Amino acid sequence: MPDIIAHKADEDGPDSALGSAIVAALGRRSVVLVGMMGAGKSAIGRRLASRLGIPFMDADAEIEKAAGMKIPEMFETHGEAYFRNGEARVIARLLAENGPQVLATGGGAVMNEQTRAAIHANGISVWLKAEYEVLMRRVKRRPNADRPMLKGDPAERLKQLMTEREPAYAGADVTVQSRDVPHDTIVDEIIAALAGPLGVPVQNSTLAATEGRS
To answer: Which of 51, 45, 46 is nearest to 21 (CA)?
Structure first.
């Protein structure tokens, strides 16, 4: 079941009317957050969903629920290919069955061509782009055992994964820089950025408020 964290759009954003207009323009589509581990997809996604008054879904949590085991255990027991196949199926289901919603995906999800096609068909994608130093600082807060893709030398693996994945992330509909500022600042920027591909007019007052919080 979706993590429904708000029943109506918050009124503390730069322009609550803009959020309502974005939700209306989404229809049954999802806002899909993509990007590296440590970019803040889950934390910012929850706040974005609350702001827009729509459900939040975490793809990794749904994968674990479907498999009946934690992601590190899946990697250890069955390997990465098993996890990736399950990931693609779960994301396709979430996009087809739900919406509008905010969906946070795992860092490697968009490396699957079918997943990219499903996101394009059923969502508006947002790349939360973060610099290497920011990501490294954040991933250090969790044990390496929780992040099977960082086995070995975490610093070198992170650089390698960024090089491999960023071309796929760059295909997102919009890009917003993830950095060490309040989550509301990033949420403001995502909402303003979504207006363009959704054809929603943005008032000058909204842009001024967003810039003032950055």
So the answer is: 51
